[in-house]
């Protein structure tokens, strides 16, 4: 069943209008649904025009969609447009499903989150004895993230078994004592998938289909396999030197329970509705899932404050796909953004769409005005910089513009917007150069949404 059709979208607006009107206090009316939808349309049109957004969005309140639409192309080669029924890979938005599966198995007496993971895994290293399922769920295990290993760019394209993938990180020392710090680890959620399979005596894919997707009517959600023919599946794209390119191949055996699912904005709203009930697990388990342990993170979700309200979030990225899911439970507002290019920042879009739904401040994307800088200013930034990962980034001047080259990738001409700030065309990335007390350039900071990278000048 589709949540949106030509008739149902208008009905949803009318229903939301009634619910919203009831919620308003006398003398302090908020914007009408029509006004909210108009603001969403204005914002998304700008996101497409200015930032090149391609994907699908859904905004809902009280479980009812008020806006849902596709933008750009699901497949640019075949001119297939995105829609609310387009299927996208979820990346780390898989993790909340994995966490819920663990809680279901705990309620059935198959495991406890306080168990050592070694009670549920074979050939468990001695260093993992103190690691519990709770530590994996909260990213506090200290187990190194296999996707951060230098060889991952090559190995992610290869089919892999559980034994082979775990071998990549099982003998590496813990990065900190379990429970003492927070650091995102896809390794932890990969291991959770293995624990689910052992406790449930079935595959991770089959358990989720039987216990989550089928009961909720999520017919367009599942575990992605490269060989599988999936109706309405989008293609994933990257940006190289400002040009749209096909994303690098990822064999879907690699992300597994850390990022292997696909879905639509409509199906994810069904999931959102279930999280307000005890349909899947008890309310006590749901609250445990959302309770932060360290660094705002609970079981598969981040518990943050957005626009003065408590917000539950998870985001993801994988092979040209980007996802953002924001829930504001006290207001029953839900925002889902799924994209199939790297051009626009899905998390920033979700933040702004939730602000619109909450009648909070936000900014519509604006065209950047490029400025011309004197060659003497540009000369200060020329040189070689190094990221924490060891990758070299080189800045040169060509045809009067500052260019950036990351590793062996093609050079990209940057857009100057001030004497110290530049933007990378085609993607929402800002580069700001830093100087010392004497005015010498010592580093730059690159920001894209919430992600921030610093590179130190070495030459």
Produce the secondary structure layout.
Elements: H1 6-23, H2 33-51, E1 55-61, E2 64-71, E3 73-75, E4 80-81, E5 88-89, H3 95-107, H4 133-137, H5 152-155, H6 162-167, H7 186-200, H8 204-216, E6 222-223, E7 237-240, E8 243-246, H9 256-259, E9 261-263, H10 265-274, H11 283-290, E10 302-306, E11 309-318, E12 321-328, E13 333-339, H12 346-357, H13 375-379, E14 383-387, E15 392-398, E16 401-406, E17 412-413, E18 415-416, E19 421-424, E20 429-435, E21 441-448, E22 451-457
Antiparallel strand pairs: 1-2, 1-13, 3-4, 5-9, 6-9, 7-8, 10-11, 11-12, 12-13, 14-15, 14-22, 15-16, 16-17, 18-19, 19-20, 20-21, 21-22
Q: Numbering strands along the chain, what is their spatial order in the largest sheet?
A: 17-16-15-14-22-21-20-19-18
Portion of residues within helices = 25-40%
What is the CATH topology descriptor of the largest domain? Beta-lactamase
Tally of alpha and pi helices: 13
Main sheet summary: 9 strands, antiparallel
Structure description:
The chain has two domains: 88-357, DD-peptidase/beta-lactamase superfamily (Beta-lactamase, 3-Layer(aba) Sandwich), CATH 3.40.710; 375-457, Lipocalin, CATH 2.40.128. 29% of the residues lie in helices and 25% in strands. The chain has helices at 6-23, 33-51, 95-107, 133-137, 152-155, 162-167, 186-200, 204-216, 256-259, 265-274, 283-290, 346-357, 375-379; strands at 55-61, 64-71, 73-75, 80-81, 88-89, 222-223, 237-240, 243-246, 261-263, 302-306, 309-318, 321-328, 333-339, 383-387, 392-398, 401-406, 412-413, 415-416, 421-424, 429-435, 441-448, 451-457. The strands form five sheets. Strands 17-16-15-14-22-21-20-19-18 form a nine-stranded antiparallel β-sheet, with no helix packed on it. Strands 2-1-13-12-11-10 form a six-stranded antiparallel β-sheet, sandwiched between helices. Helix 3 (95-107) runs parallel beside helix 7 (186-200).
């Amino acid at each position: 069943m589709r949540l949106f059709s030509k008739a149902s979208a208008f009905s949803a607006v009318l229903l939301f209008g009634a619910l919203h009107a009831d919620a308003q206090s006398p003398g302090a009316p908020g914007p009408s649904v029509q006004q909210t939808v108009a603001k969403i349309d204005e914002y998304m049109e700008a996101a497409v025009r200015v930032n090149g957004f391609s994907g699908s969005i859904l905004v809902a309140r009280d479980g009812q969609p008020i806006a849902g639409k596709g933008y750009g192309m699901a497949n640019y080669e075949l001119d297939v447009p995105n829609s609310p029924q387009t299927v996208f890979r979820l990346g780390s938005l898989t993790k909340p499903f994995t966490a819920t599966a663990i809680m279901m198995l705990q309620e059935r007496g198959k495991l406890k989150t306080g168990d050592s993971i070694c009670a549920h895994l074979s050939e468990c290293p001695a260093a993992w004895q103190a690691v519990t399922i709770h530590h994996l769920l909260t990213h506090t295990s200290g187990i190194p993230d296999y996707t951060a290993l230098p060889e991952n760019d090559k190995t992610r394209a290869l089919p892999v078994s559980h034994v082979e993938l775990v071998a990549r990180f099982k003998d590496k020392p813990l990065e900190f004592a379990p429970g003492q710090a927070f650091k995102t680890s896809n390794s932890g959620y990969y291991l959770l998938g293995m624990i689910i399979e052992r406790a449930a005596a079935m595959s991770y894919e089959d358990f989720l289909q039987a216990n989550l997707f089928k009961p909720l009517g999520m017919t367009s959600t599942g575990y992605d396999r490269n060989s599988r023919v999936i109706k309405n599946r989008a293609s994933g794209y990257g940006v190289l030197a400002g040009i749209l390119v096909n994303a690098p191949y990822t064999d879907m055996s690699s992300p597994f329970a850390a990022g292997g699912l696909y879905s639509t904005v409509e199906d994810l709203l069904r999931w959102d509705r279930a999280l307000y009930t005890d349909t899947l697990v008890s309310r006590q388990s749901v609250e445990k899932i959302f309770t932060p342990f360290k660094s705002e993170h609970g079981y598969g979700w981040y518990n943050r404050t957005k626009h003065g309200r408590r917000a539950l979030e998870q985001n993801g990225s994988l092979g040209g796909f980007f996802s953002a899911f924001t829930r504001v439970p006290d207001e029953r507002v839900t925002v889902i953004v799924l994209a199939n290019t790297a051009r626009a920042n899905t998390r920033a879009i979700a933040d702004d769409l939730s602000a619109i739904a909450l009648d909070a401040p936000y900014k519509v994307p604006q065209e950047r005005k490029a400025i011309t800088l004197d060659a003497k200013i540009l000369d200060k930034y020329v040189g070689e910089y190094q990221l924490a990962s060891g990758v070299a980034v080189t800045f040169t001047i060509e045809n009067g513009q500052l260019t950036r080259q990351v590793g062996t990738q093609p050079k990209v001409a940057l857009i100057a917007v001030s004497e110290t700030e530049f933007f990378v065309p085609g993607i929402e990335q800002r580069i700001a150069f830093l100087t010392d007390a004497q005015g010498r350039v010592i580093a730059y900071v690159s920001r894209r949404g919430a992600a921030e990278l610093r590179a130190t000048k070495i030459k």
